[in-house]
Structures are given as C-alpha cells and as structure tokens.
Amino acid sequence: MVEQILYRPSTIECPICHINQKIEIPDYIYQQKHIGLIKVQVRPGTACPHEFIVYVDQLGKARDYEHADFQIQLTARTPNERAASDQFSLEDLLETLGTFATLRVFHAFIFNYKILVLIVPTDDPKFVDNLNDLFTRSFPAHMKPERLADKTRLSEFAMLDMEESKTLILDTKGVIVDSPWGDQKDFDFETELIKKALEFNDLNAQLLFIQQRVGLFKKETEDVIALLEKVGQMIYDDDLRDKLAKLFHRKLTDHLVTHYIHFIKQRYPESEPLLRKIHNRSVESLKEGIW
Ligand SMILES: [Zn+2]
Fold first, then answer.
1. If you measure from the C-alpha of residue 20 to the centroid of ligand 1, how many angstroms do you get, rounded to a whole number?
2. Per residue in 122-135, pLDDT tens?
3. What is the average per-residue pLDDT within 40-52?
4. CA of 256 to the centre of ligand 1 (A)
C-alpha cells in the first residue's frame, strides 16, 4: 500500500514585510499529541525574499516568529559539479535541510542526542545514510558520533510513543517536529563552526576544519573537568570563566562556558557531580541580600 501524505495548509505572515503566505505541514506531525510547537523554516523566495522561522501550534496556527539564525549564501553549483562530488557534503546538507535545521543537527551530533528523521516515499532513500556518513567523516577519530541518526516511516511514527521524547525529530525538508533541548535558541558555537568551514572551498578542507574545531572543543572540555577536580569545595562561575581564559589564552564568552557544561552532562555523565561545585555569584549575592 502506498502511503498517502496529507498536508494541512496554514496561513502565516512574513514578520518582516507582512506578506501572507500558505505553508503546508504534513498531517502526520499533528498525530503526536506530546509534541509542542512545530518549527518551520521558511526559505527565501517562498512568497517574499525573507527567511524566517515560524512556530506553529497543534491547530496549525502560527504562534510566534523568529528571524533565521543566519543565512548562508551557497555557491551556485552546476548539476555537473554536484555530480562530480560523489560524497555528501556540508553544502548538500544545507541545501537539503536549510540553515535552521542544519544547526540543530550539528548540535544533536556534537552533544550526543538521538536524531529521528521522518521519511516519506518521495525522499531520497539514502538521505539518512548520507547524513550519518557525513558526520562520521566530520568528527575526529577519537570522537566518532556515539549515536547515529535513525529514520522512520510515517506509519511507524504515528505509532511511536513520544511522551518521553529526548530526540531531535525532523523531516528532510528541515521541519523541526521536536527537539530535546526545549526552547534553547543559542547555537553560536555551531553557527561559527559552519560559517568558518564554508570559508574553505575544498570539501576535504571543510571536514578537516570541523574535525579540528570539534576535537579542540572536546579537549578543552576535558581541561574544564580537570580544573574542577582540582578546585576545593566550590568555585564561582565568573572565576571559572577567568581561569579557563587564562588556561586557553583567549577570551571566553559565558555562552561557551555553558557549552562546556552542557557537553560534560551529555558526554561525561560520570563527571557531572563536579558541576555542583560551580556557584552562580549573582544568585549568591542575592541570597546574602535577603539575609
Ligand atoms: Zn517578507
């Protein structure tokens, strides 16, 4: 039996020029009761030149809008040039999923979250294999993805119980059905990683850059663990940031420190108790104020 995919149209409005447009969301997404707002990236040229994210509720109503994280200008490749590279590349991924979903897929692979790709009969059947292959090649040898992306067909997806969802669920058009990190919107690390990788024209150089940057991030996280083992009972968050900046010989943003902590929770659960040593100075001074 051929699976029939039904689409539910939803009228949305561009948050920049306010032109109305219709998007179609596959009906099967609504069959999961436990899923919150569905995030759809509207690509430029759909009805106007703007790119944005729309959050759609279970009734198909647009609830919120957001500007895209950033827009990547991909080099226009001829079909011949594309055919010439037999391996699935970062640009292929961006062309398929769009920037918004690509950033989240990077986040999921780096931080070891499960990924589930919803496949419809018209999709390239090799997409998930290509995706896994790309990330296996993009990560340093000592840090191959512990979890590879899985795929599911619509009929199977409708039967899954997603109540305890700890999974990034998306389709091949870049629609984010669910994400395990809630409403986190901070993907600065991944954004910078992709932007800088694309500065290289050579596909192997792109992969090498990602390997090195991800490997460095892992090494630095291990330095954070070593430092936390050495400090006494506690350390303030800003002192930790300053000590790390000294150790790494560069300025660190609070965002990056949060990323190390997140990485420890996801990839070094045995070291997670060490994180209790980190105290937030502003919270503590607030407490003192109360007393
Ligand atoms: Zn617009």
1. 9
2. 888 899 999 999 99
3. 83
4. 33
